[in-house]
């Protein structure tokens, strides 16, 4: 038994050393990539249940509150995550909750692809806010990649203008603005904890959704799926915030835009929502812009440019 414990401790130490060896920037990229992958599945959870948006918000908020709180207690970081979140953490939670309240209903009023495509405008909004708020000027590579990603959005939206739903698109636009502010808060105040504000964000959704809707009317199956939704988005919220503190705001938003081409792919495989050729071409442009910016940035950094 002692030998197994020693081996386990050595394994944990090796993992910790590997994590410590990763540069803050690379770790930030990995964390934001994980969050983008998870966030791209949001439409699947919303479209996959018959419950209305308020019921989804309630059960998603309640389950995310529980799961993220358990994570905080498990890591023994109650003081840091809750007591030390400060005004920045509270602000991030409020802004994130406002964005989520728009995010979930958006999928009920328009397609998964449209919500994801509008979200791809985050890099521009984020870069603008960061520039005016704390004078963080995006690099030329990020600017060029953002323009490339935006051209991909134009290709996709241009091919589906006749099917856009105004209410859903406006909700998605509000969500995009909220997420940009959320990312900028963490970039401006990188010491702000991630999990504590995520708990507060989810907790804020519960009373609002309870008053505005009737969450108890949802079926047991829908409640189960929505609680799973809360679990995976707890992971996404924490990894997004942890990544955002290690990267420039515009770059964080640019990487997170990867969910734009991924979401229609999931929609195709689960709901047979067939992407148009414009979606395929535009998504490819976005992927090239995001990965191209990362490759060029790493190459320039290695050469000391």
Structure summarized in a few sentences:
The protein is mostly helical. The chain has helices at 2-21, 24-39, 42-47, 53-75, 78-83, 86-109, 112-119, 122-134, 140-158, 166-188, 195-212, 220-244, 249-256, 259-271, 277-302.
Order of helices and strands: HHHHHHHHHHHHHHH
Overall pLDDT metric: 80
Shape: globular
Query: How far apart are the first and last residues' alpha carbons, in Å?
Result: 52 Å
SS strand fraction = under 5%
- Count of separate structural domains: 1
- The DSSP helix count reads 15
Secondary-structure-derived class: mainly alpha
Main beta-sheet annotation = none
pLDDT < 50 runs, ≥5 residues: none
Radius of gyration: 20 Å
Oligomer class: single chain
Count of DSSP strands: 0
Task: Give short descriptive properties of this protein.
single chain, 305 residues, mainly alpha, globular
Describe this structure as you would to a colleague.
Helices cover 81% and strands 0% of the residues. The chain is mostly helical. The protein has one domain. The longest helix is centred in the C-terminal third of the chain and has 26 residues, at 277-302.
């Amino acid at each position: 038994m002692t030998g197994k414990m020693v081996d386990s401790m050595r394994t944990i130490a090796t993992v910790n050393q590997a994590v410590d060896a990763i540069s803050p920037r690379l770790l930030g990229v990995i964390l934001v990539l994980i969050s983008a992958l998870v966030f791209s599945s949001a439409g699947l959870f919303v479209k996959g249940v018959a419950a209305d948006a308020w019921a989804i918000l309630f059960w998603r908020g309640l389950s995310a509150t529980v799961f993220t709180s358990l994570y905080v207690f498990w890591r023994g970081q109650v003081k840091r995550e809750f007591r030390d979140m400060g005004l920045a953490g509270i602000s991030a939670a409020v802004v994130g909750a406002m964005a989520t309240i728009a995010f979930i209903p958006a999928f009920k009023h328009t397609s998964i692809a449209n919500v994801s495509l509008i979200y791809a405008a985050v890099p521009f909004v984020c870069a603008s806010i960061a520039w005016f708020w704390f004078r963080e000027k995006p690099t030329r590579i990020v600017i060029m990649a953002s323009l490339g990603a935006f051209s991909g959005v134009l290709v996709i939206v241009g091919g589906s203008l006749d099917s856009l739903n105004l209410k859903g698109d406006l909700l998605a636009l509000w969500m995009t603005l909220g997420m940009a502010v959320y990312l900028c808060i963490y970039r401006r105040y990188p010491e702000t904890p991630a999990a504590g504000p995520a708990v507060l964000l989810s907790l804020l959704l519960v009373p609002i959704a309870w008053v505005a809707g009737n969450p108890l009317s949802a079926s047991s199956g829908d409640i189960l799926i929505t609680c799973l939704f809360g679990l995976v988005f707890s992971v996404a919220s924490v990894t997004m915030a942890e990544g955002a503190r290690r990267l420039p705001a515009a770059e964080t938003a640019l990487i997170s835009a990867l969910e734009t081409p991924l979401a229609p792919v999931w929609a195709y495989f689960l709901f047979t929502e067939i992407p148009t050729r414009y979606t395929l071409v535009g998504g490819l442009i976005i992927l090239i812009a995001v990965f191209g910016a990362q490759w060029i940035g790493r190459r320039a950094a290695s050469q000391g440019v």
